[in-house]
Amino acid sequence: MTVTGEIPASQMGVTLSHEHILVDFIGADSISPDRYNREDVVKRVLPYLEALKQYNVNTFVDGTPQFLGRDPELLKELSEKTGMNFITNTGWYAAGNYKYLPQEAFDLSAEEIAARWIDEAKNGIGDTGIKPGFIKIGVNDPMTEMDVKIVKAACITHLATGLTIMSHTGLAGPAFSQLKILDEYGVAPSAFIWTHAMIEPKMDKILTAADMGTWIGFDNLTPEYKMVSRMLDLLKYFKAARRLDRVLISQDAGWYSPGESNGGDFREYSTIFDTLMILLDRGGYTMDEINQILVTNPENAFTIRVRKLQKQTDKTSD
Prior knowledge:
The chain has 318 residues and is of the alpha/beta class. It is 38% helix and 12% strand. The chain has helices at residues 38-50, 72-82, 110-123, 145-161, 172-184, 203-212, 225-240, 271-282, 287-301; strands at residues 14-19, 57-62, 85-87, 89-90, 134-138, 165-168, 192-195, 215-218, 247-249. Helix 4 links the parallel strand 5 (134-138) and strand 6. It starts with 13 loop residues before the first strand and ends in a 17-residue tail after the last helix.
């Protein structure tokens, strides 16, 4: 589901699975679209998107949730100007010690929160008519009752809509805590993207989650040597384990920052292509393996379908 309507997953093509156009960290109690001019954002961001055309990028998954600057109409305008697919989200972000949660989140039940998200999925976001293509949440470490409630709401929403859950997670502790909640709700790990898994130092823990069927987001790549080296090590480890089929790569890059001069510093979206892909080619990765990571995996991860946990006797790979 893109901001301009539904497309077959097979039309996603080369996909950046976790990036940002605009993020506003002012907090849920102060955020407002009046804090920026949409025309200024388009002018600033458009050249970075146009630069992706040389790499045949066709789909841009925007990870900015509600109360952090989500603007589906901005994404639609950018989609129309570039010809790229843009995917937005529903969901709430508890990470950051709840700064980006509305006050009502503390009073609502998981079921009541899920009802809000389900309504967006079925009827569109506000009066825009634009529907989300996934659920974006974020949790703290350690997780609290509020985090648990947000994850439960995501599970309920997934079962009602088939939208994949992308969770700002980081370390293995909260990742497996969330997978346990999914299990309690009968939701398969293949409905869950462990975002920023690169942060977890123990690769065997990440692989364990992948073996369960979890989508693994190596999605905060930066141009720095340390991060590029880390990405290469992770991909090498997963390739040896024959688990590249659960990997999503992206850069968590961008973005226009309201309140800062000209939107502040902007990190371009090209590190995967002008650095990582060159190194993977030198490292002997085949085109099939690269296509798996950049095309096939996002296509499977963001396909809208309910993914229920199957009984052990008939469990199959997603």
